[in-house]
Amino acid sequence: MQAKCGRAYKVELRAIARVLVLSGCKEGKVGDLMQDIARIFGVDLDRAMSRRTVRRAVLEGLVASQVQLGVEMKYTTDVTMSSDSTSRRKLNYQSHHVHMRVPVKNVDGSVSLSVDPKIRFLGIASTVDHTTATSQAAWLTIYNDIISTYNASPLGRRLGTLDLRMICRVLRGMCGDHANNEKALSQAWKELKNDLLLQELGEGRLQQLNAQIEELRELKQHWVAKKLDDAGGFAAYMALSPDERAARDLACVHAMTRELGAEALKELDEPDRRLLTVWIWTGCCMHKDQNSFKGGNTHMQTYWKELGVAGPMPLANKESAAAVRRVFHPEDGDKPPSEDDLERVENASFGGAKAVALAGAIFENAIAKRGQGDMVELFLQSKLDAGEPIKRFPKTNQTRFGSHGDASCELIARRNIYREFLEAIKDLKSRPGWTNIEKNVHDALDDGPTLTELAVLAIYHLFIAIPYTRRVREPEEVALNAISLGPLHVEVQDHCAMLIETPDLVLDFDEENYRIATFDGQPVERGEVMVEIKQLHAAGKLPYLREMFVRFFEGAKSTWIRFSSEFAPGGLIDGLNDAEKGRIWLPATNDRNEGALGSFIVYMGENPTAALATHNGLAMFKRNQSQGFMDMWFSSEDHQYTMRAARDLDASGLERKRKQLQVQYNQRILAERAQKVAVAAAKAAEVRDRLDATILISCVEDIHSRGMTRDKLQDQLEKLRALWNTKTQERIVIPKKSHIPRLADKQTALVNAFQAHTELLAAFSQQNVRYSGPQTAGGFVREHYFSDDEDFGEFEGDGAAF
Question: What residue ranges carry the coiled-coil annotation (predicted)?
Answer without folding.
Answer: 199-226
